[in-house]
Amino acid sequence: MKHLSLWLWIVCLCIGLQSRAQSVENHADDEFRGKRIGVIGDSYVKNHKEPVAYTWHYKFAQKHGMEYFNYGRNGNSIAYSSPRWGEAIYVRYREMADSLDYVLVIAGHNDAFKLDSIGGIEPFKNKMEVLCKGLIEKYPTAKIFFFTRWTCKDFVGSDSEKVVDAMLEVCGRYSIPILDCARKGGIYAESDAFRAIYFQKSKNNTDTAHLNAKGHDRFLKVAENFIRLY
What we know:
Radius of gyration: 21 Å
Low-confidence stretches: 19-26
Structural class: alpha/beta
Oligomer: single chain
InterPro entries: SGNH_hydro, SGNH_hydro_sf
Strand content: 5-15%
CATH superfamily: SGNH hydrolase
CATH architecture: 3-Layer(aba) Sandwich
Distance between the termini: 55 Å
Signal peptide: 1-23
Domain SGNH hydrolase-type esterase: 39-217
Number of strands: 5
Protein name: Lysophospholipase L1-like esterase
Keywords: Signal
Shape: globular
Largest sheet: 5 strands, parallel
């Protein structure tokens, strides 16, 4: 029995060492490890009232050993600047760190509510073009990704749909990968039952924008698969 126990202990030790070596090897082969990632956007990025550490992009960076920069600002828009919400993203992207390897733009939610102030969908597209061209010039070697807002109730024909489609159109002109989170994100923001589980707590369950930690974990799989495509 002693010899058998010793043999089992040796086998377990060998398996453990092999598993650890494999884990180290896989981590060393991680294409993202050591890279610099900057994320700019609205409260989707700032994470509203909850810690940034709950967000899927922070978890993505931590998972892969990346240097992470967060430029989220509650109430911020791609195309609309104001004293309350600050400069629009098409202007303030310049404040982002230099020499980023990955740039994520997660926005559009607030633009849908401000189209009249922006001047309509064409001025919005013009500001989107400024942002796309600016990011390409600032980060010629980086991989740039855009993510749209979620879907919402009465999405079809709404200003939210117009903004999402405009983002898809402009990013397409500049060959920038963009995930249509409204139609392909797997986040059912129009569903009261879904939001009660995956969105941050709000009075009468009215928050249609901000994922909680569980929601971010759910979307992380979608976002990571999308980023890996490129």
